[in-house]
Amino acid sequence: MSEETLSFETEVGRILQIVANSLYSNKEIFLRELISNASDACDRLRYASITDQELVSDGSDYKVTITAHQESRTLSIEDNGIGMNREALIADLGTIARSGSSSFLEQLSGDQKKDVALIGQFGVGFYSVFMVSEKVEVVSRKAGESSGWQWKSDGAGEFTISETEKDSRGTKITLFLKEDAKEFLEQSRLKQIVTTYSDHISLPIELNTGEEVEVINKGSALWSRPRNEITNDQYTEFYRHISHAFDEPWMTLHWRAEGVMEYTGLIFVPNSRPYDLFTAERTHRVKLYVKRVYITDKCEELVPGWLRFLRGLIDSEDIPLNVSRELLQTNPLVSRIRKALISRVLAELEKKAEEDTESFDGFWLNFGAVIKEGIYEDPENRDKILKIARFRSTKGEGLCTLDEYVSRMKEGQDSIYYITGDSDEALTRSPQLEGFRSREIEVLLLTDPVDDFWLPAVGDWQGKDFKSATRGGTDFSEIEKKDSDTNSKSPGENISDEPSAEISSLISMIKLELGDAVKDVRISSRLTESPVCLIADEGDIDINLERILRQNQQIQEQVTRVLEINPKHPVITSLSGAIGEKGTGDRISEAAWLLLDQARILEGEPLPDPAAFSRRISVLMEASLPT
Questions:
Q1: pTM value?
Q2: Which candidate, 108, 169, 173, places its Cα nearest to that of 143?
């Protein structure tokens, strides 16, 4: 087949532009990425050969070989792993095969150093070779196939691919180094890089100097070593290897379970959010090994979706080596490991929360929205998750626990109040909070979409039920009665009082005018500054949950809401005081719709008739202007 020229995917072009022109000082990481990919290729072949021995007919002694050529200024990294055919070369090296490429582009900051680090989070570290290379050549033959393929590129936007001869399976990557990258041809420099970044790789890494071939790594599985023999730097580099990340782990868990069930766990919590944290697949990145043989990173039952940010591995001594990936999903040993893993992670998180509150708050801001999915998905661990959960509230800028909220509840308060929405800023401006604020009642500010789903599943905490601040039926009288030694009333406290005749007439007129646009019109005990607000009636779906479901097209029709009015607001008192005067009916009719639209705007809802709203505003402004 003749040489074929293809263009890089748009996202790859952007990545290459970043890395090729980057001022990133730590360019040596390109070798770590290539060795890591080579190790993964050997792991995949080791697993595939369990059921197809023909794939390793030419040997099963896996290794990675580094060869430096001073004369030609080339550096090659070769493995005898599973290899790639034409389709794999195009998919793996010409596109970002993993989901989330559009999310990657959205996160680019323009800061080259930060963007190069971000590339590592997206698992596309291969492209770091263009920081040190003028040209890259990849020759590969997939195990079980007879043809080899060559991939070449200078990173300028295109690559070529052609059929070629290759005597054995695996992949050889040759870098034609830039003039300022000659240091990566020096034997001592290469040894230093491998020792620093890849010493934990469990297959031999050979350095071929032309005169001798020397194994330059220890070649033992890091997780099989005793913890007291492993340094923090070694843990960090293994985390970066197994997760293709560039940051440091926020927390490292390394343990060995012995007894009825034997396995080793080496689990990391990242310092920053992985790019694919909120993809629909909700897949985790914890690899499963059996007796130090890589099996899969797609064992869904090993880690729950609400812990999908975890990175690392589980190495079992008891699972059969030749078990199929399908049977893994129902294997009882996997279920038991999963249960133990969840328990250990939650215990360590609780410990971390107690020992370093500030650090834990940072962790929660990164991953709290994901962990809260477990509150309704995992009833067995619900209380443990709620115990470590953190929330913003109207009390201040920091985060608080449910226990802290309960300890601050006012005398006579029987409910944990919350409000859900898109942002803290929008929620704090909500008119529904005015009555709570005037009475100094703390309200949790919940801005993650998952909050609207776990709350109905929980019911209560320490005997205190959760209650939405946007729902009807809120009664402040017991709180105020027990909280005050005086007979004075807080602003807006009149829910139990009989309304005046004028207010009752105004409510009737507004209700008649609005008709089916509202479920009811009532006097509010929660408003102190705004004239109106919309609330969900008892038994109706909460306002923000309805918005989420409509956005996801899970419900179509909009739920009608209750319109609450503030009888002490000047607009309301003016309207009620004008009842009986000539022309008041038309004035109240127009005002009723304006008040409803105002309440909709405050809720962030689109107006059903913007033209009518604009007309009413124009008429109101015209009437207020001097003639």
A1: 0.74
A2: 169
